[in-house]
Amino acid sequence: KPGGRVGIILPNGYLGNRTIQYAALREWLLCQTKIVSIVGFPRFTFKKSGADVSASVVVLERRKRPLERSADSSDYAFFAGTIESVGWRAGDKKAVPIYIRDPMTGVLVLDGANEPMLDADFAAVVSEFLRSPSADCFPWTVGDRSIPAGPQTEGVDIENVALLPDLNLDPKRHASKFRETRKKIESLEHFSLGDVLELVPAKRGKIVAEKFYQYVDIELVGVGEYDYIELRGWQLPDRAKLKARSGDIFIAHIWSSAGKWFVASQDCDRLIVTNGCTQLRLRDGKQDYLPDLFIGLCSEAFCVQERALATGSDGLAEIIDEDMLSIVLPRVLSQPEKERAQRRIDQLF
């Protein structure tokens, strides 16, 4: 009915996948409903039920009159959040409960009924919602409950979504952790990856069947470092697509490998890298950004942005080139820190 409400659990691919059918679904949702909240669960939350995908709970209110197009969405904010702990061990089919323990002693924390308390974020996320502008936009979500103490949390202006070409609703991209990370970096002297790096088109060239190559799989990429295995040309997997050149920077663009990167060094004539990485090259005249770049790529702020920008429904969600280049990093203003980074760069090369 008009004004009716629904809560539904959806794979994150429905919320962020860029293909036309998923974008059409989000267009329909924005025209027919108002988004009340979207809260993401950890991957493998529903492993016990045989579902490996990342998923979110979506709460909607049906509009009294549908919009003709999603671009007309305005005048309300929705809540976007993420749950990191659901109270049981995600990732296996036993779903063993996880309880809160005293961080110093490891002793179980008990509730008023003398029962152990599940380590889950649900209550905290509900509290964040009730302190957000979204609760004001949808008074029925509050009812007769009192607003918990604490600072007001931010909502997501629906116009910000309606202006996106793909109408992305993935909660990772709209959650406060990502937005606050970007906002803090942008308040400092900063740069985007696209300012200092350019994309290298995937092209491995002719492969000689009997020749040995040095193949870098995603599992062999670390943080600033890499290893390889020797394979003959005929043994190279289909994903061995990227022909390296000394100085090229490779950044893993798979969600489950966020934070992995390396720089190709020395003799790279035989080095072939998996297409699970994005191949980048320093722009002319940007050499002085190398210390800032390498320090930034090792930071949690970089990982937060990578995870948030990945789209898809499971651990194979990927970051497209445009989003990769939009990642921002701060300039390093400490000269001793830059000098230490430069020494490490010299070692890498």
Average predicted confidence as pLDDT: 92
Proportion of beta-strand residues: 15-25%
Low-pLDDT regions: none
What letter string, H or E per element, gives the SSE order? EHHEEEHHEHHHEHEEEEEEEEEHHHEH
**Number of extended strands:** 16
Number of alpha- plus pi-helical segments: 12
Strand order across the biggest sheet? 1-3-2-4-5
**Rg to the nearest angstrom?**
23 Å
Shape: globular
Measured as a percent range, the helix fraction is 25-40%
Distance N to C terminus: 64 Å
Structural class: alpha+beta
The biggest beta sheet is recorded as:
5 strands, mixed
List the defining traits of the structure above.
27% helix, 5-stranded mixed beta sheet, 349 residues, alpha+beta
What does this structure look like?
By secondary structure, the chain is α+β, with helices and mostly antiparallel strands. It has helices at 12-16, 20-32, 122-130, 133-137, 158-162, 171-174, 176-186, 193-196, 290-297, 300-309, 321-326, 335-348; strands spanning 5-11, 33-40, 55-62, 77-82, 156-157, 190-192, 197-199, 212-216, 223-224, 229-232, 240-243, 249-252, 261-263, 271-274, 277-282, 328-330. The strands form four sheets. Strands 1-3-2-4-5 form a five-stranded mixed β-sheet, sandwiched between helices. Strands 7-15-12-13-9 form a five-stranded mixed β-sheet. The relative contact order is 0.13. The model has no long low-confidence stretch (mean pLDDT 92).
